[in-house]
Amino acid sequence: MTTKYTKHPITVQGWDREEQFNFFKSFTQPFFNVHTEIDITPLYTYCKRTQTSVFMAYLYVTLQAARTADNFLYRLDNGQPVKYEGLDISTTLLKDNQTIAFAHFPFQDSLAEFCASAQAISQEVKSSPKLFHGYQGPDNLHVTTLPWFPFKGMEHAFMINDQEAGIPKIAFGQLEKREHGVFLPLSIALHHALADGFHIHLFLQQMSGYINAFDFAG
């Protein structure tokens, strides 16, 4: 499959995940899901102050974090592990007719650039009859959002080629405003041949770092 970002093969023999990879790669359902939440108060406050889309802002920091977490860059290519040099997002969007579409949001260097690009794409997608919009290769992060109700977790639908590629899937729920902050529920599904629960911890640490940086943003 043609990809946007350069990929590098990983030699399984001698890899630090060699035994885990060989054990989990043949599972009928090799993905594991973790349901958790993250404090986005600094990002939420910044968005309200600058009239920035909170939805697009948390997609942006999610993509930033995933691009710096090695295990979120791993994929399977013909059954063998590879690592991509970059990632974009393929996210669900609700169209004007209340059906969903899958839209490609390319990575941008700044939140402002990402929001401008994503907003233009969203406007086009919402009135389009198509299901898929833009690039949908394996070097995407698959994202969906359920902002309409309290969210305690989600199990994802999978196609065979999703499992073969090992694409991470993230689902977001309704924001929860509490006395001491604003929290974003999220569910993360990873292919167990390519990652373990500890790698979700590392990803969330990276995501928190990007969120907290908005405490100091102008």
UniProtKB/TrEMBL annotation:
Tree of life domain: Bacteria
SMART domains: CAT (SM01059)
Coiled coil: none
InterPro entries given in the database record: CAT-like_dom_sf (IPR023213), Cmp_AcTrfase (IPR001707)
Protein name per Swiss-Prot or TrEMBL: Chloramphenicol O-acetyltransferase type A
